[in-house]
Protein 1
Amino acid sequence: METTCVIQKTQKKQKLSEKEDIDGNIKSLGSLPEEVLRHILSFLPTEHAVRTSVLSKRWEYLWVSIPNLDFDRYTYDKRKFVERELLMNFVDRALCLRDSSSVIKRFTLCCDVLLDASRVCTWISTAVSHNVQVLNIDIRDFDVVFSLPSCLFTCKTLTSLYLNMWSYILKLPTTICFSNLKILTIKDVTFSNEYLTQQLFSGLPVLEELKLEDCSWGNLKFVTISAPKLHSLSIFKMEVLDDDIGRSGDLCLVMIVGDSLKEFYYKGLMFAEYCLYNSFRVEKAEIVTKSKYDRIPTNIARFLWNLLIGLSRVELLRLSSDMVKVLSNSPEFLPHMPMFNNLIDLIIVDNEVDIDCTVLLKILQKSPCLQTLNFSKGISLSLNWEEDDMILDPVPACFLSHLKWIKVGRYFGLEKELFAVKILLKNAVVLDKIIIAFPFSYTRNFEEHVKVLTQLLELPRRSQNCKIILE
């Protein structure tokens, strides 16, 4: 009995001690300057920061001046109209209570517009009036005509803008100048006015990074992207919009003036012609496109060739195997393959590629300084060759002097794969390492696996220093 009493007293003292520690921590936290407390609150989700208003009288309105405001419809149950109204009212209250002198560093708005177009515009205008620096707008479901507030397009404090309008037509004002904007992402919009679209991409004097994701050029014929400090441009076209279909004969020409451009990425379908002008500084590039289109533009191969010509000075080039196949179907362009004198790393992605593909061989022959070659999804042969000496004829210069590293992914041990690896090892004179990677789905019994490994390790190597590494 005495032991039980002692334990209970000890537990009681422990609880009291814990309560005193909590109270002490709250008092210690509450004694900090308001500026420090607001900084701490800025790391919390907005709805959690608001809940701190119940802690004490001092905390009641601290949250209204926090620098980061994030209002996301996914925080609420989007299937219930009443939950949407809670979000809308919450945004109204947060902006209404905000001190007019407080700066908004980051403002994120993700919601359904429906009939509240003017309400949404007011929120964005309020963020601009509070000298917003990072603005993320993700809005959809427009039941009325919607235009972004014109003050947004002349905001002097904005450094980063993300705009997603879910296939809506982007209406632009007549005056556009983002004097401090460095990062711009535009997703899922349709450009409708050629002159104003041109104004948009010409009013970005300090822009460094531009991303265009699933955008449509609509009926536009010509656009120039000209930002003097732009160093990274990414264009993703993974979905086909209604405005893209049936326009194979008269597509938009997008001229990219790349005076400072260092990185260029294109991924997806191609429903416009992109030309790089003055792109002498591009170091990294990726062109990952698909060979299968529901209605393929007849001039798709020409578009891809023009891109390659504009990227002739890159040091790292990532190409999809589908793109290589598309170009192979247009042999008339082969004589115009540019020299890639600076190319060091070449990566083929998406699917396996045939080592005897004419376009691949031409690229290798035009890349005298190539050091690494990565077939990330494997290699094979398209034909049954009786003499492997005929495939690399002439042998690319890089195989004789610079090529040090090769990787072959998704190796299954098929005869054509083995023959392709044999060709590489036979012709790479200064090769240090070749990595053969087996896929996760690779299933062979022990004896078969040993046979595959033995075949690889016994292949003759032109380079005396070459190591075969199996993964």
Protein 2
Amino acid sequence: MAARLGLFLAFLCFVLPSLTLGAVLQQRATCTPASHGEAGVDDVPAITEAIQSCGNGGIILIPAGIVFQLGSTLSFAGCSGCEMQIEGTLKLTDDLDAWNGVKAIVLLDDITGATIHSVTGSGLLDGNGVPYWTEFNEDSSYSRPTLVYIDGGSDITIENLLVRNAPNVFMSAAGDATNIHYSGLTMQAIPSNGVTPKNTDGFDIGPASQVTITNVIVDNQDDCVAFKGGANFVTVTDISCSGSHGLSVGSLGEGTSGNTVTNIFVSGATMTSSTKATGIKLWDGSSGHGVATVSNVTFNDITVDSSDYAAQIQVCYESTGTCVPSTHQLTDIVFSNFKGTTSGAEGSVVANLDCPADGTCGIIFESFEVNPPSGSAEILCSNVPSSADITCDGAASG
């Protein structure tokens, strides 16, 4: 028995180091595409070839110090469990004609398993927005692409990148995508030469589920995060938004379908110089409009820093004439642990809550300590029940 045990132990001592060494040597395939190094020359074909070669669990490396021009949609077709490591720059070309009416610059269409990130933190995704904002300002029919569009699929992570000057929306997750994770992103839409960014939502989420957004900084001129119809189980933590239209549910109710947002949790947000920190945008009850259902939404631990409103509910969103009463259903909507100071743009009003006249308004306020720059805080309310636990100082608008 002792001899057999000795032989067994000797076998382990010989085999285990060999197995460990084999595991180390079995590395993932890595493909490094080459850039033309010339502005306006499309480098997407080279990146696409790398995805085709290394997309099955491998790594596509965008090397540091090199700019790759995106003159056509960069599709992740062929990626399954792949990783794009961006240490250099991916930059949109100036070809306005080529991009008019195109859905996305970077497209993940029904992809299962993908990571887009920078290991060193040097990676830049540059949307080159200025010529596109300029064109849209001159011609509102010009249709600009979303910078990164996830359409269906699952298990996708985008993290640790600088993302700058999206021509339109920065990040979209739709098509019933699931298990989508954004983290460690700095996203900036920077006005230049008098050109103001337009429609640069940070995140448009929905229809999608099991989405997390954490540790991100957004500096833009539209919604910081928009929870669109079909958004379900979305968690946002540790986010800073500057210059935005806030953390927004909606807009909902413009059409007759896709008007449900459920199970949203936001905690730890700093909202600076925003038109509102948090809010819900609903169309009115006019013919052709739908009924929205918004339930189990929590805005918690919100710091208001010179934003116009701390909270806003609109039931006449985009109305130009008579606002027709609606039957939208709002249930279990919580605004808790708010603090800070508004901009004073709305005088002493810190919240404007216009609930649906013929629907439900299941909202509650807890520890809402927001003040105007001077005077006493006022909250405007319409169709808000006493169960909301707030003191209303007049009728709401919007």
Protein 3
Amino acid sequence: MSLITDLINLNLTDSTKKIIAEYIWIGGSGMDVRSKGRTLPGPVTDPSQLPKWNYDGSSTGQAPGTDSEVILYPQAIFKDPFRRGNNILVICDTYTPAGEPIPTNKRFNAAKIFSHPDVVAEVPWYGLEQEYTLLQKDVNWPLGWPLGGFPGPQGPYYCSAGADKAFGRDIVDAHYKACLYAGINISGINGEVMPGQWEFQVGPSVGIAAGDELWVARYILERITELAGVVLSFDPKPIPGDWNGAGAHTNYSTKTMRADGGFNVIKKAIEKLGLRHEEHISAYGEGNERRLTGRHETADIHTFSWGVANRGASVRVGRDTEKDGKGKDLCTSALSLVFRYFEDRRPASNMDPYVVTSMIAETTILWKP
């Protein structure tokens, strides 16, 4: 095993200029992150310098076997925390050989929205709070829970320390540092209310970059849990009963929201979100009805609401935002994701960040009710 470790950690720059690029894409389920590696002649710093590639879409549920080729278009580059050196991770989206985006390519439509002049002018900032649950392999039961049984009730686990309360911190911290190394704008981590459940935050990121960064952060977390022999779950309600679910609260602001009088802009944006509540809910993740029950810090899925400092509302506004009349540009807390201009608490942990971020921008900036 020591020889395998030595080989994994080989520094290629000692012997070759060649690098390894790991191409990453989203598979047919919308949550399965796929990847494969290829050798390139030298370091690359811009996705436009990378070749397109292809894969067998019939093996990912994205193409029939009779016409299985799907083309990968490189879109963003990150440093590879596993191979290190000049090696890179490449987030891609997916197209037919004729250049048409395939149905599961959610990035394509998001990029169109974020390139609209009205959206560009508003410089939309996002902070994404990704909750997830670590499960014991083979039994699919949360890490730290007794097999076939339950831990003590919720209360002592949120942001906790101790072997009887915090389960999986080595994975969480490894992921945190790997994301920083990769160049992801990860802004913090914390233990969640349900034991075995954690959260990381990405942002503030502008426009399409928020989706790119969250997908690569998810990929890195999948790789780390693979090494640790632990199963990663983005199920929005992994354990039925009196246990918190897992969400992906989405914090959002625009240039006009961050300016004087921005609180009025925020209220108008929230009003528009309420008018399209059902449409947003339908795009905010599968199984979300099991999570949005009106209990465990959620609003009921059938009713739109908003409030200041209210974690039981669909949309929450921070007290500082209400007090100051706008969002602040200064970082005050990693847990508040730098800015809490307003927080859409409805997205599930398994949401597609391309869909959610672009939909919020479309509704609040482009849509005219």
